[in-house]
Amino acid sequence: MEREPAGADEKPRRSDVTRAAILEAARDRFAVDGYDRATIRAVARDARIDPSMVMRYYGSKEGLFAAASAIDLGLPSLADTPREEAGARLVRHFLHRWEEDGTLNALVRVGVTHPAGADRIYTVFREQLTPLVAAVCPDPAEAPTRAALLVSQVLGMALNRYVLKLPPAVEMGHDEIVAWLAPTVQRYLTAAGPRVG
Amino acid sequence: MEREPAGADEKPRRSDVTRAAILEAARDRFAVDGYDRATIRAVARDARIDPSMVMRYYGSKEGLFAAASAIDLGLPSLADTPREEAGARLVRHFLHRWEEDGTLNALVRVGVTHPAGADRIYTVFREQLTPLVAAVCPDPAEAPTRAALLVSQVLGMALNRYVLKLPPAVEMGHDEIVAWLAPTVQRYLTAAGPRVG
DNA sequence: GTTGTTGGCCAACACTCGTTGACAAGCGTA
DNA sequence: TACGCTTGTCAACGAGTGTTGGCCAACAAC
Predict the structure, then answer these.
(1) Which residues of B48-72 are buried (b: 16+ CB within 10 A; e: fewer)?
(2) Phi-psi region for residue B59, left (φ > 0), alpha (ψ -120 to 50) or beta?
């Protein structure tokens, strides 16, 4: 019986380096293999420890994923950005964030095959993306819809480029992607919504 | 030693109903569970036959997937469609096609976690989508890029709505989605490409 | 009616998985 | 020194996997 779930202010443990190694290996594995093929044994092998350690520190495979998928999109504040450049700014940010490490890839790969992953994506969407959209779009009540549209475009490109590796999407340069996608995202963010009859 | 791989003109076999039942069950399972969780045993159970039959008829799990993911997007000819309505037409078509059966869902779910799935998506992209795009876009040489952009938007929305089931995307109506996405797709298809320096 | 082929089920194979419990070495404290 | 906690390894469990081969009944051809 251990007690330590809530406190974020624990003193450093001797095993912190191991815990971190496990987490890093887990992120890589989830990113490359998805939930099912990312085995605890493989994670342990990458982290150079025994599989049972993973269980001890993270309780279960689900727990490991929960820990490995704690994500900060690092979204830029759009306060100091001209309203009409928000789209380009966001597209470029997502491209960099995606290539920075495997976390987002892991999130998508798991989200597609495992409910816990889809939940996690929704959480990130709700807590990090929607508030930012609400700050720039005309009517805050439309923020969820507009954010969903934004995600559909950005996530779709990421899916093609980083997960499916569709050749034409892989071969596009950053500037080219931004040039094409930015107007789309900009419209989803700030344009008047279309009439639907 | 059986010989029958190439011929598309075989006489009907007594086991055709069973083969079809297996294929249908496989599509459902792949759509719901992805590649790894869709077990041959589960497919066989759904089709009410023995797992070994699946092996006999489709050789292996990979073979089963190959057979189950033979997909016809049923894309409409855009010849009789006004050029400026192509975007709306396509978006609406994809929405219907997606909800028609589980095939596209299966394709995406597997594509994300299994190389064979990603390959299949690329094949469909190349053989069915790119030619259609080439027929309506200004410069046929740009067709792969423009098709990739189209896919990024359409697939992204499908991912949110049908796979991840992100609530705001699920709650949108068909008309609303078309109204938002059609201009985007239209631009990817026919607008002059942006300058990239 | 006999024979060969097809459709189907059953039992088992070798393997991998997540998970568990026992046990040894290292460390801090009294 | 002796104790207790932490970190780590090892071996095993039960379950589920893809896949294989043997066997039996129904059908087709002669």
Answers:
(1) ebeeebbeebbeebeebbebbbebe
(2) left
3-state SS track over B90-155: HHHHHHHHHHHCCHHHHHHHHHHHCHHHHHHHHHHHHHHHHHHHHHHCCCHHHHHHHHHHHHHHHH
Same domain, A48 and A133: no
Q: Are B91 and B181 in contact (CB under 8 A)?
A: yes
Nearest CA in chain A to B114: A33
| Inter-chain CB proximity A180 and B188 less than 8 Å | yes
Whole-number Cα distances in Å, B192 to B118, B127, B178, B189: 30, 24, 22, 9
| Whether B99 and B56 share a structural domain | no
**pLDDT band at residue B99, thresholds of 50, 70 and 90?**
very high
Would you state the pLDDT for residue A4?
Answer: 40
pLDDT for the residue A8 = 45
Closest-CA distance of chain B to residue A18, Å: 28
> What's the CATH number where B89 sits?
1.10.357
Q: Please give the Cα distance from A15 to A53 (Å, whole number).
A: 10
> Is B127 a domain residue?
yes
Mean model confidence pLDDT for chain A: 92
The tally of domains found in chain A comes to 2
Residue A19, min C-alpha distance to chain B (Å): 26
Asked, for residue A31, whether it belongs to a domain, the answer is yes
Contacts of B124 (CB under 8 A, 6+ apart): B71, B73, B107
What's the domain range around A27? 16-68
Q: Are residues B62 and B158 in the same domain?
A: no
